């Protein structure tokens, strides 16, 4: 395949072209661009004067000033321009400080003074160009020049970076965030489960994407882009029938582009603020375009969401009316932990601490639901004895999100799940005489875990233990398992239980299968749901259940005596 450069996209502001600088606070940006060069130049002017020493220092420090320009800028002309600006500011400060401090010593200045400016400008620009050349080799290309630079360094037998422009819907699926921990697992699953699908790998780093493709043994196209660029995200969304994202809340620009382009979208986000924002900003757009925007397509929250949907569907089919008291119990769980879990919990905690209004909003049990007549429900916050099953349970860690998500499914379903539908989640501790004490102990243990995951005090330790991109071992993933049992009583008094489970790690191996099958369903199944910000059960209903069953998941509904 010949090299096809990605279409050049215009810069959306100076900082948009400098990823590291753009992530800095305003004060650091001002320091990088202005204060630092001014103070540095002034100090040299005051200390060394305009002399050979000043010439040497100005040249040396200007070269140092070119380092961030080359490392942070995305384009060569931009890096050189910023180096020139930094060098000029630096040299001008040397001259100004010297003239102010030594007004009678102006004769040593070169004539014209512009020669001295060149001693600052030229070295900084040259340094920026050299640094940019080396830095660009590992950077995601966002312009045609950047893509050509990457392509020059791939072996001839490898396919080059693909353009996201081209015939409408040239792909069935684009997997974005493919080189992350869950992204790699999802790509591996898609390669095995859908060998004939037209799939592309997307992310920021073209080299990592091509290395992943080689590891998978596939010839899928590779798309390197920064989704913060509106045009790039728009072109990617327009090129495919469905997008799967593994970068959680960071994927909002891509979700927005899909909503505008009528492209289905699936991700793994299980954060109430993010999904609430998506509903507020994207639901109406997606309704108009027909896009199905589906969040939480992993362990959070497919077992709860799909299992409850199947219960309601079975009760209706049996003529037993709607659901009333419903409880989801995590009976078995064995799995690992990753940096992504930690990052998500830290971000959610920081957002809630910074915004009291947001805390109040997401405390509402119906924070994600479409407003309906039903507003009475609550989530357990301590160990409790469930009135439906008679079992002692501890509050589930994922319960606050899952319960709000299930209520959204009920509110989006025609007729809902029943006027008396009440939903809660818990973690099972068995049925022994010590079950109450076990539930209390588990509740304290989960509270401590939540503290570890959200506290700033533990962040340095957890960051060291869970570096970015880390996750459970292959053995942990293979030996994992989960089993969720969802019990309900209908308006006629009938009792049902739905079971969703799998014999692999729930948060990673099972999640990658659930995400992969969700995006395959969105891309290829004859779905009848309308567009909007939906849930997996509303968007894909029995299509997703059938797909997961075919992958070895236990999915069943049975009526109890």
Automatic annotation (TrEMBL):
Keywords: Membrane, Transmembrane, Transmembrane helix. GO terms for biological process: glycolipid biosynthetic process. Residues 173-293 form the Saccharopine dehydrogenase NADP binding domain. One of its GO terms (cellular component) is plasma membrane. The chain crosses the membrane at residues 38-67, 79-101, 113-135. SUPFAM superfamilies: NAD(P)-binding Rossmann-fold domains. Pfam families: Sacchrp_dh_NADP. This is Uncharacterized conserved protein. It comes from Lentzea fradiae. The lineage of its organism: Bacteria, Bacillati, Actinomycetota, Actinomycetes, Pseudonocardiales.
